[in-house]
Amino acid sequence: MAVKKRFTRRAIKLWTDLHALPETNPLRKLTARMRKFRRFHRSPFFQLATALNEIPMENLETINPFTLPPWMERMQTIAEWNDDSTSTRVDQDAMVRIAVSSSARNELVGVGGVIEGPGTVPETFSFTHGMRTDQNPFSGELVAAARGADTSKPPSTIWTRPFGCLVISRTTS
Fold this sequence. Notes:
This protein has 173 residues and is an alpha+beta fold. It has helices at residues 3-20, 30-34, 44-52, 84-90, 137-151, and strands spanning 95-105, 108-116, 123-131, 164-172.
């Protein structure tokens, strides 16, 4: 990524972070001084601040680091493979099994997987997800699971029965 683009992204992030602070924070008061008009010797950050001045920063969406709040009910996962109930759930006729994996080597993130449906031949897929600087193996694992779920259409023979999907994943970095 070019240096100018990288610095611009960081300056926009700093500007957004300053506006996300509460009004009582002393750093928030810096933004009021940046809004004054100056004609000479304007810094690149000041030029960016004047360009972003018209955008309503107070109405930005807050993205939380978790997909569900801690108090919401989560999907139940199979954690242990030792009991018999797990093996019967996995070996059902109407179960599509998707095994995915991702790894990062030579500054590239690669993903792959196998999809096996009831009465079908296992289908494999693999592709390069992106550069390690832009992606990580965990996002590659999510992309591989999404790819497997997109291609796992239930056969027409089991449309009348319940359809299940089991995703098994492994990541190495």
